[in-house]
Amino acid sequence: MTALSLQILRPPIVWALHFIAVYALISAACAPRGLLSPDLARIAAGGLTLTLALLLAAWMVQARRRRSRLDAADPDMSLAIAAWWSAQISLLAVRANLWPLAVMTHCTGQGGPMDDAIPFCGLPPSPAEVLGRWALDPGLLAGLTLALILGLPMADRRRPMVSG
């Protein structure tokens, strides 16, 4: 694997690990024995999210610098662009991972009010219920729209991914 390939893979791996950590914190807070208080879970997840967000932002800057040093005809240009987008999307995903903890006030795991709002507590919802509960996160949509707008000027300068 090339260094650029690793730069593309690192951010989604960080996002996946963050997702697992947030899920574990919610599970600990929602356990019937109450292994963690929701406030402690929120603080731990917030600190972890801030740390990983700064790391992903640094990787975005690194990818942008690498891309600016490459010539437009360089075969690595498409990988450098993909590395930047990978970090950008993963940064938005890490932020979205925090949503369940942001709305959690308490969770007993035994029919409390949060059991209806957070699918991690109690029985999982059926697929029909998931579609019925779907809500668009305005912050995430705004971030994705901003990323699209910022990325559009680069679209005409980008080389095709496959040259032949």
How large a portion of the residues is in β-strands, by DSSP E?
Answer: under 5%
Structural class: mainly alpha
Residue ranges: pLDDT <50 for 5 or more in a row? 109-116
The residue fraction in helices comes out at over 70%
**Overall morphology:** elongated
- How many helical stretches? 7
Overall average residue pLDDT? 78
Major β-sheet annotation: none
Can you count the beta strands?
0
How do the SSEs run, as a string of H and E? HHHHHHH
Report the C-alpha radius of gyration, rounded. 19 Å
End-to-end CA span? 22 Å
Description of the molecule:
This protein has 164 residues and is an all-alpha fold. Helices cover 71% and strands 0% of the residues. The chain is built from 7 helices and no strands. The protein has helices spanning 3-30, 38-69, 77-97, 99-103, 113-117, 127-133, 138-155. The longest helix is centred in the N-terminal third of the chain and has 32 residues, at 38-69.
Briefly summarize what is shown.
The protein is mainly alpha-helical and 164 residues long. Helices cover 71% and strands 0% of the residues.
